[in-house]
Amino acid sequence: MLTNIKSHHDYSPESCSLQAIIQAYALTTDHEDEEVENFYNEVQKTLNEVSKKDIIVVQGDWNAKIGEDAQEDWEGTCGQYCNQATKDRGLRLLEFAKYNDLKIMNTFGPHKPSRRWTWHSPGGEYHNQIDYILIKRRFQSSLKIAKIRSFPGADHELVMITFALRLKKNKKRGNIRIKFDVDKLKDPNILTTFQANTGGRFAPLLALDNDQYLTPDDLAETFNEALPEEASKLLGKPRVKKKKWMTDKILALCDQRRSEKERARGCLKHNNSNKAYKIVKELTDTKQARATTIESKEGKRLTEEKEILERWTEYCSELYTHVATNKDPNVLNVPPSSNNARDIILRAEIIETVSSLKPGKSAGIDNITGEMVQTGGEATIDMLLLICNKILQTGV
Fold it and tell me: 243 in a domain, yes or no?
């Protein structure tokens, strides 16, 4: 690691800074509380002098015991993989970490007790976790693992972390060159529109070409703004051909497909399902098979067109033919026919009925849609009036 040290500064005998790494050695319990507070003040002073943009790591022998009982009150600052009980010096370390938004990382790893201890008594009778690595919370996602490794001949173990630094791409500054699809200017319509739009932007200035208040900077600024803005609206950026076999025709078809899909989504969004299904049908262009045969009343399959029409006529006649009896309530409730002129259908009724027809409906067997009737004019209304009154008068 020494080969990677860029700068080093000793702040005090207890702490030093290695770029953004602060190495600390806390006082033991033999010292007074005032001395311990002075130690934390020195570490805090060192931490304040480090740039907030740096990855800050504070590590060392803290001579403090943090227990499992501190996890609930200090959630997010320490984990559950630590000592059994928290001591006074451990509480002071937790306060320091909480104040500086630091996390005690080697208390979060799911290690068994023998892999948590960082200090052993000379006789091997006592084991404690008193060495910790603290890191800024904002960089915790870069930490992969924290673990303990043996160090022969010493009473302390090595506390290690694996740190994966995520580098942010440095954005380029300055003017960014935009490449427009100038091939679209070969289209006469686009060319005409482009010329008209830019001409409209320049016209006011051209009319004031002798104005003394116009400066070259003003003209150049307008010129430099107008052309790119209009090109951005009409031309856009050229399509990138990611494959060698892609041609302009293929890209044009892709654009058309994307446009139709957007139209379909827009229709569905505005509850215009009829138009949406029409667009989907245009895109799929699948022809549905129609039945060319039907069965006669006896179950014989009919294939000739004449026989099929006769069978349909027979079926419809039987469907709408009702043999009335004297006991039929529908017949008994029918009022007697009258030739009174007041019983005729009025023209206003026909107009109201035609106006209420819903658009977008399928045509019947006569291939006449509601829109055709509505736009047919006065003659169509008169014809419908005549037909309806004839039916009313004759009963046919």
Answer: no
Q: Residue 8 belongs to a domain with what CATH number?
A: 3.60.10.10
- Per DSSP, the residues of 279-319 read HHHHHH-PPPP----EE-TTS-EE-SHHHHHHHHHHHHHHH
19 shares its domain with 142: yes
Q: Tell me the residue range of the domain where 301 lies.
A: 289-334
Q: Is 64 in contact with 26 (CB distance < 8 Å)?
A: yes
The model carries a pTM of: 0.41
- The stretches of the chain forming alpha helices (DSSP H) are 33-48, 88-99, 188-207, 216-234, 248-269, 273-284, 305-320, 329-332, 347-355, 370-374, 378-394
- In tens digits, what is the pLDDT along the chain, a chain of 396 residues? 334 444 555 544 444 444 578 888 888 888 888 888 999 999 899 888 888 778 888 888 888 888 888 888 888 888 888 888 888 888 899 999 899 889 888 888 777 888 878 888 887 788 888 888 888 888 887 777 677 777 777 888 888 888 777 767 766 666 666 777 777 777 888 878 877 877 777 677 667 655 555 566 666 677 677 777 777 887 777 777 777 887 878 888 888 888 888 887 877 776 666 766 776 777 666 566 666 788 888 888 888 888 888 888 888 888 877 665 556 555 555 555 555 555 588 889 989 987 888 876 765 655 566 666 666 566 667 677 777 877 777 765
177 within domain boundaries: no
